[in-house]
Amino acid sequence: MKNIILTGFMGAGKTTAGAALGGKLQLPVYDTDHLIENEHGLTIREIFQSHGEQLFREMETQLLGRLPSEPAVITTGGGIVMRAENRELLKRAGTVFFLSCPFDEIYERLKEDSTRPLLYEKTKEEIRQLYESRIPFYRDGSIEIDTSGKTPEEVADCIISSL
Ligand code: S3P
């Protein structure tokens, strides 16, 4: 079995669906943000604050070059698909799923969030623009799973039936 990679915008439910999927398939679950945080001993917020977004993007690319080769569920940071190089690395690393969700549903989940640096001081419209600009990159080479109104278990089941 190949790695199962989950992509999608912040708040799309990658972490919860990934955990459900790992449980159902008895596979380990790795999250690119957590791997970066552990490796550098800093939170994503601190990395953005002290090193800036560009260096964080570099850390993402470097990490993708050495993902575990065992079959695993890998959940990813919402911006990882922005670099063409990363999309290629993701495709090489496993089967890529895009967890899609309408913007308004995502926004409801994100509006109280204080942990994601890209949301700081952004209006709803600015976040919508970011969301819309990324959709083509999520769709590139992936299997799209519509998560709207689904529980993490239901999303995991949809992924399993598309494998
Ligand atoms: C980001 C999404 C975050 C995290 C970082 C940047 C993005 O991950 O990687 O804050 O650019 O969309 P989640 O999608 O898990 O929130």
TrEMBL record:
GO terms for biological process: amino acid biosynthetic process; aromatic amino acid family biosynthetic process; chorismate biosynthetic process. Pathway: Metabolic intermediate biosynthesis; chorismate biosynthesis; chorismate from D-erythrose 4-phosphate and phosphoenolpyruvate: step 5/7. GO terms for cellular component: cytosol. SUPFAM superfamilies: P-loop containing nucleoside triphosphate hydrolases (SSF52540). Its main location: cytoplasm. Binds 1 Mg(2+) ion per subunit. Pfam families: SKI. Keywords: Amino-acid biosynthesis, Aromatic amino acid biosynthesis, ATP-binding, Cytoplasm, Kinase, Magnesium, Metal-binding, Nucleotide-binding, Transferase. One of its GO terms (molecular function) is magnesium ion binding. ATP binds at G11, A12, G13, K14, T15, T16, R116. Mg(2+) binds at T15. CDD domains: SK. Its EC number is 2.7.1.71. Its cofactor is Mg(2+). It catalyses: shikimate + ATP = 3-phosphoshikimate + ADP + H(+). Substrate binds at D33, R57, G78, R134. It is found in: Cytoplasm. Catalyzes the specific phosphorylation of the 3-hydroxyl group of shikimic acid using ATP as a cosubstrate. Belongs to the shikimate kinase family. PANTHER family: SHIKIMATE KINASE (PTHR21087), SHIKIMATE KINASE 1, CHLOROPLASTIC (PTHR21087:SF16). Monomer. This is Shikimate kinase.
